[in-house]
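Observation: inputs received (chain + flavin-adenine dinucleotide).
Thought: call the complex predictor directly.
Action: predict_structure
Action Input:
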Amino acid sequence: MKQAGLNDEGINKLLAIKKEVTKESDQELAADVVVIGAGGAGMAAATTANQAGKTVIVIEKASKMGGNTILSGGAFNAVDDGSETAIANKDSVEKHYTQTFEGGDKQGDPKLVRTLVENAWSGVVWLKSLGMEFQDGVFTVTGGMWPRAHKPVEPEGTGFFKTYQEYIDKNKGITMVYNTTADELIVENGIVTGVRCTGKSGNTITVKAQNGVVLATGGFGQNIEMRMKYNEISKKWPTLDASIPSTNTSGITGDGMIMAEKIGANLVQMENIQLLPLGDPKTGSLSGNIEHAVESRIFVNLDGKRFVNEGGRRDEMTLALFDQKDTTMYIVMDSDTYPKGDELNNFGESIASLVSAGRSLKADTLEELAQLMGVPADNLIGTVKAYNRYCKDGDLAGTADEFGRTLFSDTDGINNGINDGPFYAAVRVPTVHHTMGGVQINELAQAISTSGEVIPGLFAAGEVTGGIHGSNRLGGNALSDTIVFGRIAGTSASNFARQE
Ligand SMILES: Cc1cc2nc3c(=O)[nH]c(=O)nc-3n(C[C@H](O)[C@H](O)[C@H](O)COP(=O)(O)OP(=O)(O)OC[C@H]3O[C@@H](n4cnc5c(N)ncnc54)[C@H](O)[C@@H]3O)c2cc1C
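Observation:
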């Protein structure tokens, strides 16, 4: 347009006319249940409501389903109480409860924590009944504190959405409305009856629910203003400004919390924001993260030394990382998890491709690895030697190390320390990962108001809710949360009948 001689004002006028002309007409849609957000919790709710015989409309601002859930490592904590796996790992639902509750500094609502751990395994069974496949056995995900994470066969979180899409294709009654952003909840006579949205072309789309509305818009990891505002309350992190990246997808901006707060919902524990020490230094994403399970790797600072219990809490690990030089560390491991080099990490990348892209370092000896890392070789060699003493066959096996670490490589049965070259290292920084605060709910996933009352017609599930994980979420518990509370929200919204 500039070449045609138009100035900025003329171009803006033309663009405004074009927008007006291409704007689609406003729409009114209706279904029994309306779900806002097509991530893990939203799709679990939509599928459950449909299984209960309801028509469902799912509103999603992105162009496809998935949210953060599709990016996830897929680690799904659940204990099949009394099973061979649970017995072999000395695990139980009770232990899952205690670790979740205490791992969150006892800030989680005990009733919600109970609901989570007691229904996590039936969530796996439900997913399997829909056709989703899981690998055998369990593993310890970073910050999961115990080997109880189930891993889907499909990479990352893709298995969930393949399963939901197949369900939608086979069954009538779930309508997906993409590229549509929910803006405000509609309240009539004190009951939440629907949601007003903006479509792709800027048109208004009003969606009404005959039964309930489920809020499942995820957290606020990508909303820097909210991160900073709430971190001011806890002052837990030195800063959460734009210099700290996030693992989250860009649309995770706290919309659901903002919408719910406007109609009187109680937001709880918003200051509980989780960081991971595992971000890619350029993007903050978890891609390029070479670890598989907690037991087989260590974290090393730029002096070539360990500095924290790598099997401990996520907040403790990340706070310790903030105290290290350049807030930077390396994950260091040997070739036990990558014997051939074409094996994939938890994010579907082969170690060979990461090495050739310069995102992972590889060396035949620890001395050479230290050179590539730019850390003193003596320190790295000494660090690994000291660490190996606690692993299987080491003279200190079975005892906790100086950082309190108890999860060593004997528990996964794979290896006996970091001693089989080639050796690998990958650089990592702190990254905003999960927001534990949000809309208060009860065990029926009903949203609660600031005056402590149930908000009729409004249900919430997944990261948009608060008060389950407390101050620190256990790794692998968020996916269980999406399925457990997503299913409950789908059932509660289906059962909700307006008294008119
Ligand atoms: C990289 C990564 C790895 C992870 N790995 C694990 C793991 O292995 N195990 C584990 O337990 N947890 C993991 N987590 C955490 C877990 O994935 C999330 O907490 C969980 O998936 C959140 O699910 P959700 O359904 O609440 O939200 P999401 O899956 O994020 O879905 C929310 C959806 O709502 C949509 N939305 C938002 N606002 C609006 C609006 N206004 N209108 C319409 N739609 C809207 C979004 O576009 C999105 O699709 C990981 C997280 C990340 C980012």
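Thought: report the result.
Final Answer: The mean pLDDT is 95. The longest strand covers residues 423-435.
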